[in-house]
Each structure stands twice: as C-alpha cells, then as structure tokens.
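Checklist before submission:
- one chain only
- standard amino acids only
- sequence pasted in full

Submission:
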Amino acid sequence: MRCIALFLTVMIFSVTAVNAFAFKKNTFSVSSGYRLDNLDWNIAGDINGNNPNIISELTWSELEIIQVKIQGTFIFKNNFFLRSSFDYGEILSGKNQDSDYLEDNRTSEFSRSNNSADDGNVRGFTLGAGYQFHTVPDKVIIAPMAGYSYHAQNLVITDGVQTINSPENPLPLGPIPGLNSKYDTQWEGLWSGVNLHLNVLNNLSVTAAIEYHWTDYNATANWNLQTLFEHPRSFAHSSIGHGIIFRGNINYLLTGTFRIIGTIEYFDWNTEAGIASFFLSDGSTVRQQLNEVHWDSFAARTGISYSF
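Returned file contents:
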C-alpha cells in the first residue's frame, strides 16, 4: 500500500522515456547488444541484524550478457500513448564470491569460495502509459508516463574453488566438486520518470530519460551441496527497495518507416533491510536479517524501428 501511495503522489509530477519517434506514429522496434551486471547481497547472523552484523556475503561481478529487447508504442489521437517492452539475455561469463565472517564489519573471514557465474539468464517486462506535451511542435517533447515493471535474474554458480578455510569451515582448499547452486531474483513494482525528446535534424532525434522505480524484491536459492538445507528451495529473500534507470536514445531515419536506433541504459537498484528465510532439511525454518541487495547494470544496444 505504501508503494501505491507513493506512486500516485509522484506520478502527477513525473515523466519518463518514450520511443524517440513515437510522437507521430505507432512504432515497433527490435534491438540487441551487450549488457554488464553486478549483484551483491549480505545477511546478518540473526533477525535483529547482529551476531555478527554481516555473517555472509555473496557477490556476482562482471556478468557479461548478450541481450535482445522488443518494444512497441501505440499512440492515440489525443497524445495519450501505451508502451510495452520485453527483454531477454543469456549470461556468457561472470565471477562469484561467497564469503562468511565471524565478527562484525566483515572481519574474521572464516570461509571463502571463488566461483564461476558464466551460466544463467536475465529477463524483463515493462508496461506503461503516458501523455505527450509538444512544447515546440515537432521539435521538443516532454512525455509524462507511469507503469509497472518486472525484472528477473537466474544466476548459476559452478566451478567453485575454496580459497579460505578454518576450523569453523574445514572444507579443503581447492576445487569444489559438483557445485551447481542457483539464485533467482525478481524485482517488480510501479515506476514513473521524466523524458526529454529533441529532433536535431529531419532525420535525427535524441532522447534523455530517467525513471524512478519502487520495487518488491524476492529471491529463492538452491544451494545444491548443502545437506543442511532443503532442496530445491534452500532459502528465500524478501524486501522492498527502489531503483533508478537512466536511458539515452539516438534514432536515425533510413526511410519513411524504418530507422536505426542506438540505446545506452544504466540501472542502479537497492533494497532496504528485509528477511532471509532458511528452510532446513529437518523441516524447520530459520530467519535472519537480509541487510541489503544491490544491483547495477549497463547496457548498449543497436537495432531497427518500424513506424506505422
């Protein structure tokens, strides 16, 4: 309810990105390119955030992704419009680190593994509606918009190597045979933002956009080598958070209906403190504090747009 209330308040004043040439015609575009993701989370030793304040931390870094995005925009005669998009990407390479600590503030590290994260996929869906203000006819446009978005990451951890051990975790140093753990995330919620469109030349236009997202965060994991946990659902994370998206587009006219498009996009999303629920093999559940989750992403895509 708090998320909905914030959304209704802010959307009155906020605006967001729209396809650069969507102010006159319906458009359909397909683009593909490169995306680079980083994700990390950490938990405390108990539900109150203590014992210690960070007991375990997982980081995924330099996740290199090949991504495809499909987007459609439908324009009504009164300048209202609808937009939807879907994107999908395959993870090609990446790194993961799993560290555990005995004392506060990431001290007395008693276990660490460094692993491969070169498998998995990402996907997203956005639906929105808005209104176009033509401040200078056919030259400058501001487009108020608000909607719903869903983003997910299916992350896989393999080829593990134990690099730090201790009496508390006496696993031998070196390769971890059979490691094939999974961590699947979902970020979904309402959003709004601001977009500025400028027709530079008759065949060239640019846009700059920012979106603000309120998100519900949920994740599930299968830690396949941990006999202490249930399988395939070993633990789950839940929290609320927020995110910012920056986006820039360049559109170049080829013909009356086809245009080349280029897009750069940056995500920066964070959660508040939440709950980490561990499902044990004896049927019991243990809950600890999820301190935070952070996700950032950069994407660059090129493609083609069709107007009709």
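Reviewer check: The chain has one domain: 2-307.
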